Amino acid sequence: MKKSTLLLALFLFFSNLSLAQEIRVYKEPKFGFDWSQPSVYPDRIVISFGEDPSQEIRINWRTNTEITEAYAELAPATAAPKFWRNATTQKAETEVLDSRNVAQAETVAHYHQTSFSGLEPNTVYAYRVGDGERWSEWFQFKTASAKAEDRFSFLYVGDAQNYVLELWSRLIREGFKKAPEAEFIIHAGDLINYAHREQEWHEWFTAGGFIHSMLPTMAVPGNHEYNFLNQADREKRQRSLSVQWRPQFNLPLNGLKGLEETVYYMDYPNAKFIFLDSNRDQEIQAQWLEEVLEKNTKKWVIVTYHHPLFSASAGRDNEALRKLWKPIFDKYQVDLALQGHDHSYGRGRVAPGENVMDGLNMQDATGTVYVVSVSGGKMYNIKPDGWDEWGAVRDRAAENTQLFQVVSIEDNKLEFESYTAIGELYDKFDLVKNEDGINQFIEYKQNLDPEFRFDNTIPYVDQLPGLMEENLLKKYPGYSVEQVRFYEEEGNPRIRVTLKSSDQVKNLILDQEGRVLSED
What we know:
- There is one protein chain.
- By secondary structure, this protein is an alpha+beta fold.
- The chain has ten helices and 29 strands.
- The protein has helices spanning 3-22, 164-178, 198-208, 210-214, 231-236, 245-248, 282-294, 319-331, 359-362, 466-475, and strands at 43-49, 57-63, 71-76, 88-91, 93-98, 108-116, 124-130, 139-142, 152-157, 185-187, 217-219, 226-227, 240-241, 264-268, 271-275, 300-304, 336-339, 345-349, 365-366, 369-372, 393-398, 403-410, 413-420, 425-433, 439-443, 480-489, 492-500, 505-510, 516-519.
- The strands form six sheets. An eight-stranded mixed sheet has the order 11-10-9-22-23-24-25-19, with helices on one face. The protein has a seven-stranded mixed sheet with strand order 14-15-16-17-20-18-21, with no helix packed on it.
């Protein structure tokens, strides 16, 4: 065989092989209804800090309704295995959640909660929960230091929302691995996709596993934590907070009446963390926020809510919220705003104490730094032209990338790092607080790799292999490929393709080799 013929044969062979290999149909996991149902054994064990994290821990867990009395035991942890001799036993409050008439919740369960206060700062404690016979394992957590100069770190993540057990699990576990000394984790809303869906909450708790039981959760609801309870509510367009939210979390009760456990604050010795619900009652929250900040004596102020004041994604803008809350952030020199919602990454800032950017001023000093991040598997396009039209500078962005953030504070310095789901450093900056309260901004993006985009990462949407698309467009001249979706039919891979011309649309079904099976 001639060399040229051999090369052609090899080219065709590997081209055809490549076509077959590139058509990969993703198989989503299936869950039975009983998978997420409670039992007599404690599950969904989650802890949160109280208003003062150096002295208080709050614990929640779930069982079925057979368990009518529940207890938590807590002791200072030591290396000696019988540390439990110094434990305190405390009876929990038990609440029934009967959601059998709520679509996709359809469960009755007992939720148990208790709080331990008067704890020693900077101390490792162990706890377990149960009914007196059936106990969980002993979990450990550490209270915050009472010294303002001591260093502490926390994790922050944006929307988990979709593919929670499939894809968010790797992200949250990598975050715990990267920052094992983190003292708590902030969730900026949209923990799940459908507010009341029991299976999705079970995915969230399963994905985090023991992390939820050891790393205090401080969360705010996103828009996906609100949905209709029934058809009557749907007709009235009246959305309600997830029926599971308040029973399964035990967050500080120092916020607004009627917005309990969605609006609140937490005080570290030198940092005030404020949590807002951007879904509702925004003006009332603005008044409350100003009152809280007016009384603030902490050096650092970090605010968390779901809908960004400066949107990262294309086609989004929360103008009314920005006009309402940003002046308060400016007035009281909020240092950092942690946001979600947009399923992409954006990090930027405004000038100190001003609404109009001053480029020279920003070289050395900054006002509030705004971050939007996403931790789950659902991705959107970023806003292509940055934040200039809104009076802000966007310094770093990403598409198609799962991220978690590690924030560390030590006296006058705040360090911010963003990592990918495989532990790569993606973004970094520092803030150094001057005596006048204005922050020096230190940028590190010049030392980092180029930004991730849809066109330089693994394709997010299904795509036809190049040769298959080329052959298809030869068969249909004047058309372009509008949409591609891989699926399976009776065990056989199939490709649904939408073609579009200037005045016509064709929907095709192809087999794995690109042969047209049907057309309409």
